[in-house]
Amino acid sequence: MIKYFFLIFCIPLILSSQSDLPIGSWTTHLPYNAGIQVTQSDEFVYYSTGFSILQINKNDYSFQKISRTEGLSGNQINCIYFHKATKTLVIAYSDGLIDLLTEHGVIAIPDIQIYNNVPINKTIRSITFEDDIHVFINADYGLSSLDLVSHRMSFTTFTDNLIINSTLSFEGKVYSGSNKGLYVFDPSTKNLIEDFNSWNLIGTPMGLDPNVNYPSLTVFNNQLFASDNTTVYQLNQNSFEIVFKESNFSVQFLTSEGPDLLIGLTCDNSCGNKISIIKKDETKTEFTGDCVSENLWTIQDPKGVLWMADHRWGYRRAISIKDPCQSIFVNGPFSNNLYEITPTSDGVFVASGGLDAKYTYVYRADGVLSYKNKQWDVMNGGNVPVFSQNDIRDILRVVEHPDGNKLYFASFGAGVIEYDKMTQVYTLFNASNTNGILGVAIGDETRVRISGLAFNKIDKSLWIADFLAGKALVSYSNDKVWRSYKLNEISTEVIDVKVDNNGYKWIIPRESSGVLVFDEQDPNNPNDDRSILLNNSNTNMVSNRVNTVEVDLEGDVWVGTDQGAIVFECGSSIFEGTCKGSRRKVDQDGIIAYLLETESVISIGIDGANRKWFGTRNGLYVQSSNGEDQVLSFNTKNSPLMGNVIYDVVPDQKTGDVWIGTEGGIQVYRSDAVAARNVFSSSIYAFPNPVNANYSGPIAITGLSRDARVKITDISGRLVYETIANGGQAIWDGKDYLGRKAASGIYLVFANSTRDLDASDGIVTQILITR
After folding, report:
1. Taking the model in full, what pTM does it have?
2. Which of 147, 315, 358, 582 gets the highest tally of CB atoms within 10 A of its CB?
3. pLDDT tens digits, 623-653
4. What gap in Å lies between CA 411 and CA 392, rounded to an integer?
5. SS3 at position 62
């Protein structure tokens, strides 16, 4: 089975002043600070980052990012190889899927991925040259040959429990290095290569240990070389001879793509990696130093330039071992780790920490990632002394002060970090400087585990979930007063807190007991606190396992559980005990069902049209403002989504960009909804405008009042189109009521607020169409 995709390198220019993305388009934000493997064509060097491909021009060092957004079929890249004869970059993914990237686009080869006869472990270890139209696929199940012209598998050899690391043809025979010995197949025997019983194990009589791992094979200077984990061998007539071995070093790779044979060496006692270089005249040199100290893979181009792959920031190259190392830097997130995404008044911030299944530390030190003015930056121990001096790790939340002048970070282990944007001063709050109000975790008295942050926009107080502290709810007032509150209905294992439009706190406990709503009323009077625990005993909730809470534009509170979502439209009556919540009913292929009742809702986002974006373990679902109608659904099969597990989804209501945190990384989808004002903006405009003859995409009218009624007429006043805005933006497809493309001319846009239907329509902007 072969699937064809057009590889998109150029994005149509349907740009607005709000977002650079066209409506309905995607972009991906992946880290480009590491190269796991590297290969080359005549013109380009290709790096695998593990999540995507970076293509670098050898001459001018310009680069192109290639991921699922640009047409790749998979996410987790295991290995890559460029086949020069067919000009094909072969990309193998962790699930056995293979992509062929050519100048014509991407061809997906799912044979190994979907073929039931292939064992469960379909991990592809490497891709190696076979002949002018074939490559060897070396895998945990055995060996396959892929025809790059017909896009079909020529043969597959199952090797029982042997893992095939590398394979090549040499002097009419096929050699495969496995995790238990080096094997050879001789086609002259007329046996079938698919029958592994026809292969012979090369053993001690030929100079090799038959019980060790052989990860690398290569042909250099018309000689066959093989390596085990410590030694490089050369085939000399009928036996293998040791040609390289160095104490305290392990062999990491062999490659002979350029003029020389490169032997990658890893120091066994952390003394730094290096490369041994053997020339055709058998002279040997060493490449050492910082440039290769963490090297994973290196290739040499025909000019002798070395291109290194490693986990460090930047992509390194060296004209020769005597020249200084040069780095090519590509902007992107510092890390692919994420826990929560927060759009703010001046950028987007990503909390990169995490928790394990038992809600304990994973010790991520990646810090806070920031995206401003189209550039990624990071705040962590590498550039912020407060982080390094206090060993700040596992940042779980980022919130912005309602005044926009400060940010607050939640560290699961260190406390609350305040960042003043004006002074650029960081302040760490913990038990020692809050008189113990920020409490240490019971049983872990050296750490303050902050799991949730939220602002009450009414009084600008910060509310804090203090996991495992004696009093697990803490507030920090706008006049810098700290207070703590004991929650009697739930345990101290509090994982998040949200504040609704009434100032009520919705608190999520770790245990499956529902969601607690808390109101301190007079903060100086501990005796008037009130709370209510909402669960399946007193509401319409089915599951007590609550994952997330979000407040929509109407002030209604949506609760995501392990069995769908429920909305509480209670306002100030939530404590009366009569508000049961509503499970929305939806039509699924003619069958009435409850909203997402079979899905675990992990995250909820609200866009500018008050639509609900539900992140689940099986993709992303977009529902109408009342939750009853499905607007969109995305998964890895019908979109560029990099993973079906949606950790966070946050629409930026100002721009229409929807930030999506997936198991595969950070992505952005440009929606058709932006935030609205109560009245029309003085800067209503349409984009694109003018609309040229070859454009057939959506035309957006933005700056409208919320859910405005929009009518579009031609210059004579004949109605062409009518719609309701999504939040503050309306979309016209450029067609009339009969589905025909609107003719050339000037079109008038009239709008009226749906909240003031007695008001007359007024012209708000004009659109010029040229056909």
Report:
1. 0.90
2. 315
3. 999 999 999 999 999 999 999 999 999 999 9
4. 7
5. coil
